Amino acid sequence: MFIQTEATDNPSQLRFLPGQTVTGTEIMEFADKQAASVSPLATRLFEIDGVSALSFGPDWILITRQKGEWQHLKPPLLGIIMEHFMSGAPILYAPARAATPRLAGEENILAEEIRTALHRVIDPELGYNIVDLGLIYDVIVGSDGDVLVQMTTTTPGCPATNYLMEGSRECAASVEGVGAVEVELTYEPRWSPEMMSEEAKAHFGIVA
Q1: Gene3D superfamilies attached here (predicted)?
Q2: 155 in helix, strand or coil?
Q3: Domains in the chain, start-ordered, CATH in brackets?
């Protein structure tokens, strides 16, 4: 992947052209870190000391610096942009759905069977199942057997995101009685090691 940069009339701003669709049509502006919290890419770019504002366009990213020289800022910024697009992560976090009460009876039993099946999905970086890691936020089963799996990853833009989502979809679909399966990625709330099961914490030597 080759990312071009383009100077602007403002020496404090530099346009990055990743050669891929960024927003598609609209322009998104992020004036500060709080505004950037809706985007995994914007959040990471604001982690670079000196970045003061961002704008995303159809096929470009405009970065405003508050301090520092572009020759020093460009390498880490290019690295973040490249890693983001190569990972297949979204520009914006998927909005979390409103909490749905678990259904009683057969649907609830099926949800537990799906959770058991999801133990077969192993995070390739940590080498541990995603259920005990706390990456599965909810399993919602409709009366027709259709399933929604709400999950997250340990970090936004995780390169294994697609692998984990597809593995979750396949494992959920393998359970008898399951209809269509939708896997929804969310980062609300953000994952932390405290979400692990006691067994996982013990495995990784995490002491409460």
Answers
A1: Fe-S cluster assembly (FSCA), Scaffold protein Nfu/NifU, N-terminal domain
A2: coil
A3: 4-87 (3.30.1370.70), 106-203 (3.30.300.130)
